[in-house]
Amino acid sequence: MKVRLHDVAHSRAGDKGNLNTLSLIPYDPDWYLVLCALATAEAVAAHLADRVVGPVVRHRMDGVHALIFVCPRDADDTVTSSLHLDTHGKSLSSALLQMEIEVGDGPGPGAAAPGGATGPPA
Predict the structure, then answer these.
(1) Segment holding 15, helix H or strand E
(2) What domains sit in the chain, N to C, each tagged with a CATH number?
(3) Any idea where the AtuA-like ferredoxin-fold domain is (predicted)?
């Protein structure tokens, strides 16, 4: 079964020059190890390939059940020189949450279907 990250996690974005930092934090901590296994740096780089160039680096923050992705952008893709509508790259967090992961047959940790009790707050 495929699950969209938006249904099980939230994300924030920060930028510095031509780097974006994206957090991925599950609503339910039981999803953390699933995200560690499936939300790899390579998968995120492929998903964001239209804006991210070069290798994505993933950092695990086990104590707070969060993943941090450092995503390089093109040298000309900075706040002052970017031709993108979102020069800061803040919308990359929303783009990340559109990524789907394959969790097998069941709905995953918490036994709630996407958008249910483990999904985003109402």
Answers:
(1) strand 13-16
(2) 2-77+92-103 (3.30.70)
(3) 3-102
